[in-house]
Structure formats: C-alpha cells, structure tokens
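Audit log entry. Action: structure prediction of a protein-small molecule complex. Ligand: flavin mononucleotide. The ligand was supplied as SMILES and no pocket hint was given, so placement is left entirely to the predictor. Protonation state taken as written. Sequence taken verbatim from the request; no trimming, no tag removal. Recorded inputs:
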Amino acid sequence: MATVTAPPAPAASTADGKNRLERLMRRGADFLGARVAIMAGAMSWVSERNLVAAMSNAGGFGVIACGAMTPALLDAEIAGTKALTEKPFGVNLITMHPQLSELIDVCTGHGVGHVVLAGGLPPAGSLERIKGSGAKLMCFAPALALAKKLIRSGVDALVIEGMEAGGHIGPVSTSVLAQEMLPEIADQLPVFVAGGIGRGQAIAGYLEMGAAGVQLGTRFVCANESIAHPNFKKAFIRASARDAVASVQVDPRLPVIPVRALKNAGTELFTAKQREVAQSLDEAKVAMAEAQLEIEHYWAGALRRAVIDGDVEHGSLMAGQSVGMVSKEEPIAEIIAKLLDEAAAALGKRAG
Ligand SMILES: Cc1cc2nc3c(=O)[nH]c(=O)nc-3n(C[C@H](O)[C@H](O)[C@H](O)COP(=O)(O)O)c2cc1C
C-alpha cells in the first residue's frame, strides 16, 4: 500500500505563522514586559528563584509562589531572584495568608512589577495598596460575573483557569471558560488562559480566541532548572492525563477546594485528613475559617513532602492533565522554543 505523506508546508506559511504569533502575543508580552506572552504559573515549592529567573531569562514570565512563606522568606526569595535575572517577574500571593498586608509591603519594597492574587477576591484595601505601589495587579476569575466585578474594581489583567489544571481547581473546563469569557472581556483588559495547555497548538487557539497570553504550570515542572526532587519529576514523566485526578470532598459541610494531583497513597491520606477536620468542626473545636486554613496547611505540607523530600507515595503530586505531554527533563528555553514553534506552525497552516 502506498504511504501518504503530507506535503511540506511552504516556507511562506512558516514566516506568516511566526508573524501572526508575534502579533497575537504582543499585547500580553507588552503587559508582562517579556518577549513572549507565556507565564509560568506560580507553583508552591517549585516556583522559587531558579525556575522563576530561568523562565524570565528565556523570554517568558516567571512568577514566585509565595504560598505559606513568611514576609522574611519572601523578601529573601525576591532578592535571590533579582540576583539571577534582570528581566521582569511576578509574585503570587494567596489572599488567605494571615500576613497578606506585610507580604504586599515586601513586594512594594522590592518594586515588584506584577502581583498575582490567588485564592479568592482581593481582601479590602489590598487592591488599592498593590496598585498604589505602581505594581500591576492580576487576579483569577473563575466565572464571568466575577470577572466583570474584578474589572470594575480596577484589576489590570485576569487569569482564567480551567479544571484541567494542576493544584487547586474550579469546576469548569478551560475550553468552556475561554468560550464564555473571552468574547465578553478580552477587549477590556489582557486575559491569560491557563489549565491543560501542553502544546503550542492550544496556545495558538486561545490567542485566536482573544487571549492576550497563556499560563502553564505542569509543563514546566520537569525543566532542568526546576528544583523539584528527581522522584517528583520521574512521576510526572511516567504519568498520563488520566492519572491526574481531582480530590474528593468527603463532607458537604467542609467546603474543600478540590486539588488535582497524581493519584497515590497521599490521595487517601487527604480523605482521612478531611474526616479528622470535619470531626473537629462537629465537636466545635475549630471554626469554619480555621478548618479551611488547616486544610490549606495540610496541602502545603504534603506538596513540600513530594516536591522537596521526594516522598512521592505519601506527599501530594499536584499535576494537571497536561502531565501526559511531559516526556523528559529539558531546559526551560527549549520548552519555550518548542511551544512557540508549534504555535507558529499551527497559525501558519490556518493562515494558508
Ligand atoms: C505543583 C503545582 C503547584 C501549584 N501551586 C500553585 C500556587 O501555589 N498558587 C497558584 O496560584 N497556583 C498554583 N498552581 C497552578 C499553576 O500556577 C498554574 O495555574 C496551573 O498549573 C496551570 O495549569 P496546568 O497545570 O494545566 O499547566 C500549582 C500547580 C501545580 C502543578
């Protein structure tokens, strides 16, 4: 039987694709102060100075994950990152952090250009303080109504993240969020699409739909520059999309935000933890807010156990469904180059 091979793409379409990609990314890249509009989303324990600086040096935009860091630790991490790159990078702060105000001061002190607030709407006063420092404020918008509210309150850019993502997730997929939200808000401010992106073809698609850029997390965990433990990286390289499952809420009274992670013994440990916290609630030993914070501390500890200590059985292997497209350890600059080539090729073909 004769084999059918696709004819090689004409050179003109490659150049067209690159030009179109450059044009589609320009708004997002200008907003970030980067060469390309690809953000490495903050990942607790993983997104520290080495990965963040490498990402920004490669032309993308790195974001430090503050997570549960104290103000002093964040201060040291920002200083360490500045020592490794002169390029812009951002800092991701979690709204629930009890010292949010001091963390904002640390960012202001360092003249951090972009602050990303995760974990809920900006608490009273935080938006004004971040913007007052001259920094650009980015927030996550899990639904259109919330996106409109955030736009009215003055945020500078939004991230819309679907449930395919690694870490804490909402209930709706990236493809649906993008269709619902981009036509309504993308002309008002830059919107970055996150969750489930593993190849440049998907980046091209979201840019064509109006996104200013994209945010990836899972794809960067196995970068050479990532300090994640070799066991953590091996687990990512072995896993397929269906291994990255969302945690199950065992008690309807305890509103646990689901977390997507690779299934292991730690998945069961989390179920047991939820039961323990629910019992403390029953016995009125803790209030709801405290119970939720306890769950968040649990995740931070479990993730550290896997990322830093390499205990991939009992720790948390937070990963998105795009984990199936992570096949080896490679320099972050090569990952970026590959994503850009794929996106440009896709755009070139569509233009033709
Ligand atoms: C290991 C891991 C840890 C994460 N930690 C955080 C975090 O601390 N704060 C946050 O806002 N997002 C966190 N995320 C989400 C990422 O910033 C990013 O939005 C997400 O990974 C994008 O989806 P993807 O994994 O499908 O690429 C984490 C993701 C992973 C995989």
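Audit: result stored. The longest helix spans residues 11-32. The longest strand covers residues 61-65.
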